[in-house]
Amino acid sequence: MKIKIDIKYLKFITLGFVLFTIIGTISHELGHIIVAKSLGYETALYYGSMNYYPKGYLDDKDVIAFKNLTKDYVNIEFKSNSVWNHLPLTFLLVLLHYLIDDFKNAIKYLKTFMKSIDKSENDYYKHVILYFSLLKNKKSHSIIRKKIPSEILLDFSDANTLFSDVGIPNCPNCESCDLFDDCITKNKINFIIRVMNKSKTNIINQNYFKKYKTNI
Question: How far apart are the C-alpha atoms of 130 and 78, rounded to whole Å?
Fold first, then answer.
């Protein structure tokens, strides 16, 4: 039996499949957005996913400042399965405000983070909020040790411990970076360096093109 493939129809079927996959995916996410909007959340749409935030979150000055910082300084690409591709911005804002002893904002962003992951009643996070509140009110270490579980005190003992589960970029020192295996930016940089080195050793003689010159 001889099977004949009609290339014309195959092209239409392939194009239609790709087109309707895109439409279907975005329509699915738009459904989530409609529900989130109806509940009073702000939303952001990406291909294949969406995020929702409390009202006013996207206009928050700290959020805008941090986005500008990450755009200009931490513009790094990671593998699709890297935790950094799924890390909520509020999570980083909590840790950064904690590190600069701005406990009021650390509490604010932690509450937003808890809502975004549907963990508003999580016992661990509620104790972290209590810990931040005690620090904000300058309570003694003895009082803090009585009220806060040792697990939380250990987790917030230093900056390295804070980021132990996610790692932090150490650009441009790739070899000592916790995210070395997740990062794909280094491969692009190495490719550019190889091209530049090749261009140095294989210089094109511009006189070669003179014979192709035409009068315009």
Answer: 34
* Residue entry with tokens 């593998």: 79
pTM exceeds 0.85: no
Tell me if residue 46 falls in helix, strand or coil. Answer: strand
- pLDDT < 50 stretches in the chain: 73, 216
Name the 3-class secondary structure at 183.
Answer: strand
Q: Which residues contact 29 (CB under 8 A, 6 or more apart)?
A: 45, 46, 48, 49, 50
Say if residues 58 and 42 touch (Cβ distance below 8 Å): yes
Q: Report pLDDT digits (tens) over 151-161.
A: 999 888 877 77
Residue 157: helix, strand or coil by DSSP? coil
Report d(CA 202, CA 27) in Å as an integer.
50
Q: Dihedral through CA 177, CA 151, CA 112, CA 82, nearest 10?
A: 30
